[in-house]
C-alpha cells in the first residue's frame, strides 16, 4: 500500500497563495562565508544529499482539494562553481547570490523549490548560498535538511500513489468541513469582542530622526547586513538589564522608527517575532511555526533599560499555546477559498509592519557546513530575498522593516530588508529634511547609538 499524498497544511498554503496568487513570493536565503579553502567535492556532496532530502518536493495544485507535495529529486538546483566569485565582477556575496537567483529562479510552482551554490574567493575563502521557497520549508525544516545532508542521512517525503479525481473530491469535503469548524470557532472567539484600543499610544513624538518619505520620492526594498562581536552584543544587553533577544528587538524597532516604518510616538507598537514550533525533527511538514506579536514601548530609555521589552517578549511568548488562535483559524478558512476570491479577500490583510526573527546560536556544524576547523570564523546571514521586478513604493505606500539575527562562532549577523529611496541623499541635513536616508546608514547609526562595534558585511 502506497502513502497518501502529502497535503499542504494551512501555513504552507499561505505562502503558496502569496507566491502563486498574490505575486508576492517569499524566498528564504542563507549565505555563508567560511574561512576555509574551497572543497568542490564536499559541497557537491551536500548538494546531492539535499536533492534526496525533505526540501526536494514539487507543488501540485489540483482543481479540488488541498494542494499537495510530491517527492521530486529534480526540484532543487545545485551549482558548484570552480571560478572565484569575484571573476563574475561581484564584489560581495549578496551581488553574487542575486545574480545566481536571477538565472535560477526559486518558485514553488514554476521554478526551482530551492537552489544551493558554492564558490571559492580569491582570498582563499568559500561562499555558499541556499535559497528556498518559504512554502517548501521554514527555518527549522531548512536546518533539519542541512543537518541530515551533513550526516549523509537525508529524510525524504514518502513516495505517494497517483492522485485521482475521487481523492481530490474526498479531500475537498474534508477541507470544507474543517473550514466550517474553523469559522464557527472564529465566530465564538470574536463574538462580542470589539478590537481593543491601543490606549498606551500617545501623540507626542520621540527623539528619533524619522525618515518620512517626501512627495515624489520613490523607494525600493533593499538588504543590508552588519556583523557585531557576539560577546559585545551580549554584554551590552546585560548592561541594559536585558537579553540578546530583547536587545535585538529594541534595535530593530528603533531602526524601524528612524525609517518611518513605525511611528515615532510613545506607546506599545506591534513587532512580529515568529517562533518555530517543530517538536519532532522527523516531522516532514514544510511550515510548522507560530507568529507571536510583542507590543512594547520603544523610546530612548531602552538604551539604559530593556526590562520593558524583555517583559513584553515574555508575555508574547507566553500567549503561544497549542490552542488555535484567530490567525490559525483564519488560515484554515483561507485554505478553502478558491484563487479567484483570494485577492479581494486579502485586501487590508497586510504582512507585519516590523518583523524581528532571532534564529539564535546556530549549530556549529551548520554554521561551517561540516568544516569544523572554520566554525569560529564562519559567518551566516539569514533573511528573505529582495522582491524581484516589484513596483517602486511611493510616499503613500506602507513599507515594512524586517530583520533576522544569527549567531555563529564569534559574531552575530544582523540582516535587514527594508525600503530606501531609489536615489538616497548623501548630505545628512538634506536627507533628514527630505526623508531620504539609506538603510545601511540608519542601521549603522543605531548600532553606534548602542555603542556596539559593527562591520558592514554587505
Q: Could you characterize what this model shows?
A:
Helix content is 33%, strand content 22%. The protein has 458 residues and is of the alpha+beta class. It has 2 domains: 6-172, Chloramphenicol Acetyltransferase; 219-362 and 390-456, Chloramphenicol Acetyltransferase (2-Layer Sandwich), CATH 3.30.559.30. The strands form 4 sheets. A 5-stranded mixed beta sheet has the order 5-6-7-2-12, with helices on both faces. A 5-stranded mixed beta sheet has the order 11-13-14-8-15. A 3-stranded antiparallel beta sheet has the order 1-4-3, with no helix packed on it. The protein is globular.
List the helices and strands and how they pair.
Elements: E1 6-7, H1 10-20, E2 27-34, H2 40-51, E3 57-60, E4 68-71, E5 76-80, H3 93-103, E6 114-120, E7 126-133, H4 139-151, H5 165-190, E8 219-229, H6 230-239, H7 244-259, E9 268-276, E10 289-297, H8 307-318, H9 326-334, H10 339-346, E11 354-361, H11 364-367, E12 379-384, E13 401-408, E14 411-421, H12 428-434, H13 439-449, E15 455-456
Parallel strand pairs: 5-6, 11-13
Antiparallel strand pairs: 1-4, 2-7, 2-12, 3-4, 6-7, 8-14, 8-15, 9-10, 13-14
In short:
The chain is an alpha+beta fold and 458 residues long.
